[in-house]
């Protein structure tokens, strides 16, 4: 096993990935398996570097040499004058002079090569007057509205440009050129991969309370869902009125489970249809980009047509309401079985395909978070499919079933105004998510979290059965609201939706094309990763304006249920807790990724979600 060269805490010079520049860094740890050093730059950025990309500080000290005392031309003319004054020097002297001449040529050749390399560095990093600061996460100005800097950093390939210019101006031999090509090919391999995610190392920081917390959540989450559904069935759904536990045999129905499986595989068939465009996701740790077919909205249209056909042929859709608890149990059992399958198959997955958040080595924690990042069966991406299809579209179908059940139970010719508002608001939310399906590829669920019990249960059970809680509540507890109140609630939902959609669109458009003329008025802080942090528009108002819009909409969904009980407000309370926790995870991740640039962004935008409050 190769020995370790640099110790923890040692200050060395580390090469910035994708460049020829070295910066002062401190060694924080060493991975014996991957043979990589984790180093920390002065701006707080942490990267994993090879030993070949690290040098001691002493190697950068200025060395005194003859070339530093005089120019090559001055030394050359001096030697010429010396030879002209002594034409009768002995042969030994002439041999010494020839040797010195060869040394002089070598020095001159080296000087020209160093000059050309310096010229290359200047050319490559010319867009920023002080690019050393920018590559350390320190922009030359706090704010910019010139997108040329971001475009250059995204499109520039320093290793290719260095290679091209050196091939034109370098005087090295072919042997040196071959060695140089090996060096730069090694560099390209490093640059093609995200520096921070090059090797999937063990997860060091455990979330959700670690092993104990995740173990408790595996039981607490299903218990919460069943408790909420039992509460909604009661005449008095107050917190102090604990519902009686139903008989175990009443919770399971094989026919219901079969209907759930039919629904799941129907959505899988819609997912596999060759309709919709195919896009690439973000680069993985190996540099590879997975392909995704964007056809969620088409799947929604096909589902709507299928449900319409069932209603036309007099299928009783309120069957969902009558067996709602059994459907929830079936979904929970299926999500548990899927989670077990996912963990077993992840044990054979290559190291680079494991999730950075779920590779702790602890069974319970990895089972909950998800051990494998993108589990696929052929081209069928299990996580991406479950993220938007069965649960999200199922949420709309459940709401429709509750609307029909309300009309049947209360003998209504039309649904109540409260039920119409809840169905309309949540239908808009789901259609928006499916219409902007491509945006989910940049979320933490896809890029960071593995696919385990947390996402499987959340997508298949929590979303359809908890998010539809308001509609389920209104069936057994009808609430009458006036038209002015309904109008005020509608305005509130529209405000929340406008903030949510415009903020997300602003962010996605900036990521996709920073040079878009429509975004010319936006200012940003450049970062060491080549991306920009927006400090104007919605993202200059609060750090997570999309979360603010989400919470406003969640409140609008609960208000039609009145104020008799707190149960229908569980969703907005839970959602606030969820987004505050997610915001904390984002903060930690962004601070590690962007370093000093993120700290400046936080100073520029001090409020996280709620302006002037939090």
Automatic annotation (TrEMBL):
Reactions mediated catalytically: 4,4-dimethyl-8,14-cholestadien-3beta-ol + NADPH + H(+) = 4,4-dimethyl-5alpha-cholest-8-en-3beta-ol + NADP(+); 5alpha-cholest-8,14-dien-3beta-ol + NADPH + H(+) = 5alpha-cholest-8-en-3beta-ol + NADP(+); 4,4-dimethyl-5alpha-cholesta-8,24-dien-3beta-ol + NADP(+) = 4,4-dimethyl-5alpha-cholesta-8,14,24-trien-3beta-ol + NADPH + H(+)
Pathway: Steroid biosynthesis; cholesterol biosynthesis
Lineage of source species: Eukaryota, Metazoa, Chordata, Craniata, Vertebrata
GO cellular component labels: endoplasmic reticulum membrane; nuclear inner membrane
Family: Belongs to the ERG4/ERG24 family.
Database matches in SMART domains: TUDOR
Subcellular location: Cytoplasm; Endoplasmic reticulum membrane; Nucleus inner membrane
Record-level GO BP terms: cholesterol biosynthetic process
Entry EC number(s): 1.3.1.70
Family matches, as PROSITE patterns: STEROL_REDUCT_1 (PS01017), STEROL_REDUCT_2 (PS01018)
Taxonomic superkingdom: Eukaryota
TM region(s), chain numbering: 208-230, 256-275, 296-315, 327-344, 455-475, 481-500, 521-542, 562-581
Record's compositionally biased regions (Low complexity): 66-75
Residue ranges, compositional bias (Basic and acidic residues): 101-112
Keyword Ligase: no
Protein name as catalogued: Delta(14)-sterol reductase LBR
Entry-linked InterPro entries: ERG24_DHCR-like, Lamin-B_rcpt_of_tudor, Sterol_reductase_CS, Tudor
Keywords: Cholesterol biosynthesis, Cholesterol metabolism, Cytoplasm, DNA-binding, Endoplasmic reticulum, Lipid biosynthesis, Lipid metabolism, Membrane, Nucleus, Oxidoreductase, Phosphoprotein, Receptor, Steroid biosynthesis, Steroid metabolism, Sterol biosynthesis, Sterol metabolism, Transmembrane, Transmembrane helix
Biased composition range(s): Basic residues: 76-97
Domain Tudor: 4-62
Membrane topology according to the record: Multi-pass membrane protein
Pfam families: ERG4_ERG24, LBR_tudor
